[in-house]
Amino acid sequence: MKRTTVLIAEDDADDRFLLQTAFDETGASEKIEFVENGVELINHLNQIASGNTDTNLPSFILLDLNMPKKDGREALKEIKENPSFRKIPVIIFSTTKNELEVTRCYDLGANTYIVKPVSFDSLLKTIREIRSYWLSTATIVADE
Q: Which positions fall inside the Response regulatory domain (predicted)?
C-alpha cells in the first residue's frame, strides 16, 4: 500500500526546510514531496497520473503563489482544469494578503487560502491544523 503523500510547491529553500521541519515536528507519517515551481508541479502530477512513479496523487497540495517559471496561479488553474487532478485539494500558502489576490485564487478553484505564519511556533500550529483537517476531518475523493 502506498503512503499518503503531501505535495508542496515552494521555491524558497529556507521555507522548504521550515515546512519539512514543521511536518516532522508535528509527527507527520505522510510522505512530503517538494517541487520548486509550477512547471515542476504540473510535470510531477503528470508523472504520477501516468504511473511512472511509486507515489499516489497527493492528499493535498500546499501551493506558494510567487514562484519562477510558472507561478502558483497558473499552476492552480491547470490543476483545476485537468480532470485527473481537479479533485485534489489545493491550499494556497502565501505571504500575499491582498483581498483581490485571495478572491482570484478562490475563483481559480483554491480550496483554502492561508497566509504564511511569521514565526516557527505559528507555522507548527498551522501545519498541525492543516494536517488535522485535510488528513483526518475532511473526506477526500480517492484517486481514480
A: 5-131
